Give the backbone structure.
Amino acid sequence: MSADPDVVIVLGTRPEIIKLAPVIRACEEFGIAYSVIHTGQHYSDSLDSVFFDQLELPEPDHHLGIGSDTHAKQTAKMMVGIEEILLEEEPETVLVQGDTNSVLAGALATSKLEIELGHIEAGLRSFDRSMPEETNRTVTDHVGDYLFAPTEQSRQYLLDEGVSDDRIHVTGNTVVDAVQQNRELAIQKSDVLGELGVQPNEFGLLTAHRAENVDEKQRFEELLEGVSRVAARFETEFVYPIHPRAQNKLETFELKVPDQIRLIEPQDYLDFLTLENSASVILTDSGGVQEEACILGVPCVTLRENTERPETIDVGANRLVGTDPEEIVDGALATVDSLNEWKNPFGNGTASKQILHALSLSPATEVLQ
Ligand code: UD1
Ligand code: UDP
C-alpha cells in the first residue's frame, strides 16, 4: 500500500481476488508502491472477505461498495468512483484482471486518463457475443496498453483483431501462481473432505453460476438433470458449492435439486482447491475452474456451448458439452478412459513476476522462465 502508488489494482469479484493475490504478493516482495480499489461487485463474505482473510491480503485502500445492479448502472457507478481515485493518486499504471464488469469499469475509466492500462488474462475469446464477459474482455483488450496474454493462442486472437504485437506479453496465467502458492497449504490445512464425509475420487464436483445457464429456468433444470444422470451412472454424489446468483434463481424458479446433488455454501479457496483436487470429475461453467481442473490434472466437463479456454480442450483435459442431459452424460463417461497426463498450458507459475517485469517494476533476474 502507498500514498503515491506506481500501480493501482482494480478488483471486485471472487475470481479477481484469487488471481490477483499473487500479483499483490509479488508487489509486496519487490517493494512496489501499489494500492487496491475494490469495486464491491461481490460483497457477500463467502465471495469476498473470506479470500482476503485466507490469502492474507491487506484491506483494500479504497472500497467503492457498489454492489449488484443492472450492467449499465453497476459499471457506470464503478467508473465514477474509480476515476475520482485515479485523478487523486495519479499512478503510472492500472491493472485489471479478467472479464467482469469491474474490469470494464476500470479499463474505461483508465483509458480516458493519461495512465497506462494493463489487462491480465488478455486475449481470451469465446466468440459468443451474447455473453457480457465477451464484451468486457474485448473492449478492455482494445483500450489496454499492456496485454498480458496467458498463452500463444490468446496472443493470436489479439493479433487477429489487429492489436499490435508490441502491446502483447505472453506470461502464462496468474491462476497457476495461485494454485502453486496454495496447493500444499490446502493439503495441510483443509479438512473439507472429513467435514462433508466424502472420500477422495468418490464424488464429483459441480459449479454452475453463469447467467446464460442459471437465469433461464429450463436450461438450469436441464443442467441439473444432466448432472443427476451422471451421478446415477457413476453411482456417486455431486457436491455443488452454490454461487448466490444460482441459489437465488433456484428459489425464484422453485426448482427441486435432484437428491444426488448436494448443495453446500460457496467454499473458501483452500477447501475448494481440496474439493477440486479430490473429485473424480469436475462439471462446471466457470472459467477459473476449467483452468484449475486442467492444472490439477482432474478431468473437466464444461456445461457451456463454447469456451474461451480452448487450450484445456486441446490438451485433452476438458470436454465441451452444453446443457443437454445426454451430452453431459456422454462427456462425463468419456473422462473415465482419459489418461489425465496432459501438460498444463497456462505457464509455470511466474506470471505475476513476468507482469511486473514487463511494467519495468521488478528486476529481470527475478523472472523465472
Ligand atoms: C460475475 C461476473 C462473471 C463471473 C462471476 C464470478 C459480470 C458481468 N459477471 O457474475 O463473469 O464469472 O462474477 O463469480 O461481471 N450476489 C450476491 N452476493 C454477492 C454478489 C452477487 O448475493 O456478493 C448475487 C446478487 O443477487 C446479484 C447476483 O448474485 O444480483 C449476480 O451478481 P453479479 O456481480 O451481477 O454477477 P455474477 O453472477 O456474480
Ligand atoms: N472458487 C472458490 N470457492 C467456490 C467456487 C469457486 O474458491 O466455492 C474459486 C475457484 O477456485 C476459482 C474461482 O473461484 O479460482 C472461480 O470463480 P468463479 O467460478 O466465480 O468465476 P469465473 O472464473 O467463472 O469468472
